[in-house]
Amino acid sequence: MTPEQIVEQLQTLVESDKVKTDPESLAFYGTDWTKVYEPKPLAIVFPKSIEQVQAIVRFANENQLALVPSGGRTGLSAGAVAANGEIVVAFDYMNKVENFNPIDRTVVCGPGVITEQLQQYAEEQGLFYPVDFASSGSSQIAGNIATNAGGIKVIRYGMTRNWVAGLKVVTGTGELMDLNKGLVKNNTGYDFRHLFIGSEGTLGFIVEATMQLTRPPKDLTVLVLGVPEFSAIMDVLKAFQEKIDLTAFEFFSEKALTKVVEHSDVQRPFESRTDYYALIEFECINEQVADQAMEVFEYCMEQGWVEDGVMSQSLAQLESLWRCREDISETIAKWTPYKNDIAVSVSHVPAFLTEVEAVVNQHYPDFEIIWFGHIGDGNVHLNILKPDNLAKEAFFEKCSEVSNWVFEIVQKYQGSVSAEHGVGMTKRDYLTYTRSEEEINLMKGIKKVFDPNGIMNPGKVIN
After folding, report:
1. Of 125, 339, 351, 379, whose CB count within 10 A is highest?
2. What's the first-to-final CA gap in the chain, in angstroms?
3. How far is it, in rounded angstroms, from Cα 395 to Cα 402?
4. Residues 22-71: pLDDT tens digits?
5. What integer best gives the mean pLDDT of the chain?
6. Domain range holding 125?
7. Strands of 87-90's sheet, edge to edge?
8. Could you give the CA distance from residue 68 to residue 84 in angstroms, rounded to a whole number?
9. Based on the domain organization, do 224 and 315 belong to the same domain?
10. What confidence score (pLDDT) does residue 113 get?
């Protein structure tokens, strides 16, 4: 079929104005936050129902046409990039939140529901959806599920996987599967729901999700502590976890904070400066918890682990302190950063960071490294800012070398080359640093079962 014939056929499967081929739409919907690959999709199609998704997949399957799912396109691994003439399936119009069940504390979401939309809906019901991250205002639920998104609350609430009570998915042959149906207990063999969570659209498309909600946290309070030595952050984490149930434990460097303060309206948490900062969030439900927090803080000061600190006294101050951490990604975007999302066991983080910094500084001393991350669950974000005098192409070429060195260190510590942003294309060729050959072969076999003709997001995760 010619491209024109493909577009004409797509227009018979959805409303005619829900197929886009103009250059602006192709560029906008054909990529994500990665800048490595140029988007070159054939067309963008916007289904409005599960039946339309099935029709699109069957048409693509019959004609050997590649499909790429498009959510909020906030990914950092090129998982939603269409660089080879694929048809992009965008779920923006499948964005209803419905069928709230107050007893089960579940709600049914279309794949295009924005994360913040679900959070606000839960709040209106007096409940809470705890998966949260900087892109919550644009990321979509199906994309979150397809990448098993994490974020800032994992230490308390876990990953997206923990909150998926049921899924409806359309496989690579157009078959609709209704998985788990919202059950808490369902011990009847293989749970295919969990195969699709984190599969990045390579097995099929998520077309509906039953999401679990929980009670909202009460009286959230934030501590920001100045820590002179990175290794001491782990001592601080241990000390607080022994006394208090934490909802978040984040870290960021002085270099990161300096960028945020210089380029936004964020204020420093306190006047003194240290090389690193820990941000600790917890429910301060009574004076006893507040007293315990201050006792641990004072103990950390006595041990020399902490030099200064501040505790939020209002919601406005809490939000201001969080911005010290949450505004980092947006602030450093102007430097076209090389970004790497990696994880090791929590206890290995200090040694891991030390080794990564050493190898980068040895080979590229002019590279500025910005560290931050969800250190409470072992997930750190390595950011290297592009020098002003270095072309983007040359910078990314050098960063390919950096990736090899970093992933060798990841493998040494038995970590993961992708903690929460997926594999996509940018990390596909590095999968062997985390997964064995036997595992990868089994993954290929599973894809063959659900997507026998290889049309679902080809070239992502595995070759």
Report:
1. 379
2. 25
3. 10
4. 999 999 999 998 878 999 999 999 999 999 999 999 999 999 999 999 99
5. 96
6. 97-212
7. 19-20, 43-45, 87-90, 67-70
8. 10
9. yes
10. 98
Tokens of 29: 């919907």
- Print the SS3 string covering 309-366: EEECCCHHHHHHHHHHHHCHHHHHHHHCCEEEEEECCHHHHHHHHHHHHHHHHHHCCC
What's the domain count of the chain? 4
User: CB neighbours (10 Å) of residue 222?
Assistant: 24
**Per-residue pLDDT reduced to its tens digit, 233-270:** 999 999 999 999 999 999 999 999 999 999 989 999 99
Domain presence at residue 310:
yes
The pTM of the whole model exceeds 0.90: yes
Longest pairwise C-alpha distance within the chain? 73
d(CA 452, CA 213): 35
Contacting residues for 451 by C-beta, under 8 A, at least 6 apart: 171, 172, 173, 202, 203, 204
Q: Give DSSP secondary structure letters for 191-227.
A: -THHHHTTSTTSSEEEEEEEEE-BPPP-SEEEEEEEE
**Would the pLDDT of 361 be above 80?**
yes
Q: Residue 223 is encoded by which pair of tokens? A: 């501590």
The residue from 90, 118, 152 where one domain ends is 90
The number of beta carbons lying within 10 Å of the beta carbon of residue 129 is 25
Q: CB–CB of 143/415 below 8 Å?
A: no
Residues 224 and 293 in one domain: yes
Q: How far is CA 345 from CA 236, 245, 355, 422, 435, in A?
A: 16, 20, 15, 18, 16
Inter-residue contact 318 to 269 (CB < 8 Å): no
Whole-number pLDDT of residue 36: 80
**Is residue 67 in some structural domain?**
yes
Q: Is residue 29 part of a domain?
A: yes
Both structure tokens of 448 = 């063959």
Strands, sheet with 246-253, edge to edge from the N-terminal-most edge strand: 308-311, 220-227, 276-283, 246-253, 368-374, 379-385, 338-343
Q: Which of 212, 235, 268 is the last residue of a domain?
A: 212
